[in-house]
Specification:
alpha+beta, five-stranded antiparallel sheet, 14 helices, about 425 residues, four-stranded antiparallel sheet, globular
């Protein structure tokens, strides 16, 4: 079963934005107290978030008066139609409470699974690029493999293993595990995704052929656009303390964190062409290369995506990641500063960039301040397995695969180190 991501954007009823914010705050409190919403029972949702945008706290000096809107972002297993159908049936009470404060939601007499599905489907917006840290792993599989690893760890701790070879210990563990009904799923074969070398070679050849055009385009952007750009020059100490405090209230409650960002595109088709080109490159690399738990060498991201919306005038970025906000963006700067700069230099008031991929994110102090300044409060955030890092998720799959193989002494020793 494949994994997918859906973004739903609906306008909020006039004068109901505060009511919606209050309701989402209640849902957030319920989550923090362990009262999980109906998402948990669906057992197909990895992450979900609700974010209210355009309700007065917009980013850098936004002059436009905008209608408040509600974002619903879901990372899940299976098809979008199946997800929306199940939400409209099994999470109906929660959806009705939230979306009754949004425009054009069916009145109570006309609410049913079909009308809810139609409403949500009509308000989906297309993703520009989506990254998945554990491709092919369903929520069910991730939880089963977590339980398997925990069982093996407990079994290893329950007795001494003196004078037994690693190979013998592996066989003993396998025998014990297969005797348990809870682990019958091991009879289903699985594998770790691998790099698509053929696709990567093809991508390399395409880039090589296009290299002269790319170099000309980079020079064109630099001399005709970048040199005239308005740049972000503030530091963290110059940002609004009250808003920074509110953002930080929604972070570091678990081993995982979330990030939501909203920025405006710079004017002109040249910038739109450039960012679309960067998204195309990102999608290709994600498909062919970044399939083993690392995005540009960053081993902390579960799901991340970019969305162009509002007639390509605005960009949203969402991420679910391990560790602290500071560490997360620091890893991005160290490992993929060029990629961040290549994308976000096409948005308004970014730190000074040269030749599309230099400067920008590498100006760490101003980039971190820009990131905070364009970040949004995520009103509700749901994580299906908040105790697991992306390293844990991928490691647990390796344990499962290696457990079911016949291993040499050396391989068995490596297997035990995974646990």
């Amino acid at each position: 079963m494949g994994q997918n991501s859906t973004t739903i954007l609906v306008p909020v009823i006039k004068n109901k934005a505060q009511d919606l914010l209050d309701l989402l705050a209640e849902i957030k409190d319920d989550l923090e107290q362990g009262n999980l919403p109906q998402f948990e029972e669906l057992n197909i949702i990895h992450y979900a978030r609700w974010v209210v945008i355009d309700h007065g706290k917009s980013w850098i000096d936004d002059p436009d008066e905008r209608t408040p809107k509600l974002l619903f972002v879901i990372d899940y297993d299976g098809s979008e139609t199946d997800l929306l159908q199940r939400l409209g049936t099994d999470a109906a009470n929660l959806l009705d409470k939230v979306y009754s404060l949004c425009e054009h939601f069916p009145i109570s007499e006309k609410r049913n699974p079909a009308s809810r599905l139609t409403y949500l489907a009509n308000h989906t917006i297309k993703d520009a690029a989506v990254y998945i840290g554990a491709p092919g792993r369903t929520v069910q599989q991730i939880k089963e493999e977590r339980n398997l690893r925990n069982f093996i760890r407990a079994h290893l701790d329950s007795k001494t293993w003196d004078n037994l070879s690693a190979q013998a210990i592996h066989q003993e563990i396998k025998k014990e595990v297969l005797s348990k009904e809870a682990f019958l799923f091991l009879n289903e074969k699985t594998k770790m995704p691998g790099i698509n070398w053929l696709g990567l070679v093809f991508l390399g050849l395409v880039l090589l052929v296009l290299l002269p055009l790319i170099l000309v385009w980079v020079l064109f952007i630099h001399f005709f656009y970048e040199r005239k750009d308005e740049n972000f020059t503030r530091k963290r100490s110059q940002l609004d303390d009250e808003f920074m405090t509110e953002l930080e209230k929604y972070e570091d409650f678990k081993n995982q964190n979330q990030f939501t960002q909203l920025v405006d595109m710079k004017e002109g088709n040249a910038r739109l062409i450039t960012i679309r080109g960067m998204f195309l490159l990102s999608r290709s690399l994600i498909r062919f290369v970044f399939v083993q738990g690392k995005l540009m060498g960053i081993p902390t991201i579960h799901f991340a995506k970019w969305v162009l919306f509002d007639n390509n005038k605005r960009v949203l970025f969402f991420s679910n990641f391990d560790g602290s906000w500071q560490q997360y963006l620091g890893d991005f700067i160290d490992n993929s500063g060029w990629g961040l700069t290549g994308i976000f230099s096409n948005t308004k008031v970014f730190p000074k960039t040269n030749f599309l991929m230099t400067g920008g994110a590498y100006d760490e102090e101003r980039f971190l301040a820009w990131s905070r300044n364009s970040e949004l409060v995520t009103n509700v955030w749901y994580a299906s397995y908040p105790d697991l890092s992306i390293k844990n998720v991928n490691n647990n799959t390796k344990i499962r695969i290696q457990l079911m193989k016949a291993l040499s002494e050396r391989q068995a020793a490596k297997f035990l180190k995974l646990i």
